[in-house]
Amino acid sequence: MSRAVIFDLDGTLIDSAPDIHAAANRLMAQHGFAAFTPDETRSFIGSGVPHFITCCLTARGRAGDGALRARMIEEFIADYETAVTLTQVYPGVMGALDGLAGADLALGLCTNKPKGPAHAVLAHLGLDGYFPVIIGGDSLTVRKPDPAPLQATAAALGARDMVFVGDSEVDAETAARAGVPFVLYTEGYRKGPVERITHDRAFSDFTDLPGLITDLLS
Ligand SMILES: O=C(O)COP(=O)(O)O
Ligand SMILES: [Mg+2]
Fold first, then answer.
1. Ramachandran quadrant class, 143 (left: phi over 0; alpha: psi -120 to 50; beta: rest)
2. pLDDT at position 169, please?
3. Residues 6+ apart with CB under 8 A from 176
4. CA geometry: angle at 174 spanning 18 and 138, to 5°?
5. What does DSSP say about strands 88-89 and 14-15: parallel, antiparallel, or unpaired?
6. Is the CB of 182 under 6 A from ligand 1?
7. Contact present, 32 and 132 (Cβ < 8 Å)
8. Which residues contact 30 (CB under 8 A, 6 or more apart)?
9. Backbone angle region of 109, left / alpha / beta, with phi > 0 → left and psi within -120 to 50 → alpha
10. Structural domains for the chain
């Protein structure tokens, strides 16, 4: 199969910010730090766990503590595997994935979430069967916005023509650096306005996605 649609995960297919917020506050409490608001932790999402923990420590004035950071990354990832109960699939996602798979498009996932937690939440939500290829934030030595994870996902799918669907500035930069068309989901965790994010198409309702993709790949 040579045509593929590759998806980001957090803020694109699933609203996982409530679980990430809860896990972050468990970790902060364990280390005696004050809790974050949901908006604060949402603003830390998008560049993977090491960056997320750096944001948490920077906000509490402890950015320079490398040993603490390393310990907290490990503890966060361990907790993250079971932090799935507050996460919801965005409306219309299953129907859109069924439509795309039925149109003979290969589906892949390219996320900065570590592979273990990504598999766990996909299985919990019944989404795991859709993606034969999943590249996570710890699959390679680099993460998005480096183009390598997206290129690795495409290579593993055997895709020649593809589209990347994501919610963030990081995803837009990844697609641009890989030379792949980018479709922006506007209801996720972007940090700035839609007009400031380079994209080929944008959508806010998953029922519109199969049509957009068919149009872009034709
Ligand atoms: O884990 C993150 O920081 C973001 O994950 P995503 O790449 O699926 O949006
Ligand atoms: Mg995302």
1. beta
2. 98
3. 182, 198
4. 60
5. antiparallel
6. no
7. no
8. 75
9. beta
10. 3-15+87-217 (3.40.50.1000), 17-80 (1.10.150)
What does the mean pLDDT of the chain come to?
97
The tokens of 32 are what? 């005696």
Does 169 contact ligand 1 (Cβ within 6 A)?
Answer: no
Token match 């219309």: residue? Answer: 92
How far apart are the C-alpha atoms of 59 and 34, rounded to whole Å? 10
> What per-residue confidence (pLDDT) applies to 31?
97
Q: Which residues pair with 137 in a beta bridge?
A: none
Q: CB of 25 closer than 6 A to ligand 1?
A: no
Annotated catalytic residue 8: yes
**CA nearest ligand 1 atom 9, residue:** 10
Q: Is the pLDDT of residue 66 over 70?
A: yes
d(CA 117, CA 113): 7
Instruction: Show the tokens assigned to 114.
Output: 């570590």
For the chain, the 3-state helix, strand and coil shares in percent, each to the nearest 5, are: 50, 15, 40
